[in-house]
Amino acid sequence: MKKLIQSLNAPQPSGPYSQGVKAGNLIFVSGQDGVQPNGASVGDSIAAQTEASLENIKNILTDAGAGLSDIVYMTCHLSELNEETVAEFNHVYEAYFKEVEIKPARITVGSQLLGVNVEISAVAAVN
């Protein structure tokens, strides 16, 4: 059985998809980018967009009764995949998961993104 996850504390979907879906003990969070819940961009920096993406994911999970420590897998897209952007991305990412004992499995790839530099999706497991 599937359950819709819809948070007012993250940007509303701009297309035919859900912010999140809970299926069994898994929560799937759609790709979140450098946009604030009110729809405003946070700017072009990798750091600011990574922080906004992770805040959106955290807020969606919170509204679903979960948290960052429940994430088991993340897919991270960067518009530019090079040592500098990955280092800037990892600096912010690491701060969000500093207190998490078991870090999520993850892939980070270079992608052609529309109007943003970072987009992150997540899968969380809850009891």
Automatic annotation (TrEMBL):
What GO MF terms are annotated?
deaminase activity
Write out the GO cellular component annotations. Answer: cytosol
Q: What is this protein called?
A: Translation initiation inhibitor
- InterPro entries reported for this sequence: RutC-like_sf (IPR035959), YjgF/YER057c/UK114 (IPR006175)
Stored CDD domains: YjgF_YER057c_UK114_family
